[in-house]
Amino acid sequence: MCMQCFANHCAVRTRIRFFRLSVLVFEFLFSDFSILKINLTKMASAVKQVQNYKDEVKAQAEELLRKGIPESILKLNKILDAPQFKTRVIEVKQDINIPIPDPIILNDLPPAKKTKFDNSISKDGTRVLIFPSGAIPPNKHITDLMDIIKPHIRKLVEDAIVIKMWISFMVPKIEDGNNFGVPVQEDTLGEVQSCESETSSYSEQITRYLITRAKLISKIAKYPHVEDYRRAVQELDEKEYFSMWLTLSEIRNRYCTLHDVISKNIEKIKKPRPSNAGESLY
């Protein structure tokens, strides 16, 4: 009887342990399933957001081609016809407020005590502590043109990025078959990338001009009697004025080229594979 009770007791304990183990396994599996479900939900949400972004880029690019780029071309033409860009080069000149000091006759000075100098230190030019006429402003004609041009540089780069992404989204899946329009997409994409990189360099040109002019002004302050430095500033301003006009013209021309190339090949860009690509040609 005692053996029977012991056996029953062991059986009950075994069932309890099995039940507890089953509960633990169920909780573990259910926990993993919940985590997997959450991860799948997040993944699906991320994929949907990316797809929405792609759709927005496509819509934005098509709106640019339909309306944005033509309006930009007309606006740039109007700016190029404005008086700022029709000024004669000679009118760009601006006086430099650094006077030429009067010559000093050494023989008229009172005798001074002898001072020992360190021969290893050379001091050339005029020591400038402050400009007598105040700060030296930049050439206002040039800076006004810069303020006009810089927003258009940024806008062209932004538009080129949107169009580049739009074409990239149109590239079909890589597989064997009729890929007649893919080379057209690649050539157009190369044109857009070239436009983006070259337009970005226009901002560097502005910075280089300002740095070069500042160095020349420093030279004038140090060597006020050297007229070549003053003439160099004038020549630099005239050159930059022409460069500003050329830059804005190039921005306009880039817009025209992009619009022309894409408009002529819009069907091949949107549908690089014809709808009957899978059908037999015979």
From TrEMBL:
MF-aspect GO terms: endopeptidase activator activity
GO cellular component: cytoplasm; nucleoplasm; proteasome activator complex
One BP term from GO: regulation of proteasomal protein catabolic process
Domain Proteasome activator PA28 C-terminal: 136-277
A UniProt-annotated Pfam family: PA28_C
Domain Proteasome activator PA28 N-terminal: start-end pairs: 46-103
Superkingdom of source: Eukaryota
Alphabetical keyword list: Proteasome
Record-stated family: Belongs to the PA28 family.
Family matches, as PANTHER family: LD45860P, PROTEASOME REGULATOR PA28
The protein's name: Proteasome activator PA28 C-terminal domain-containing protein
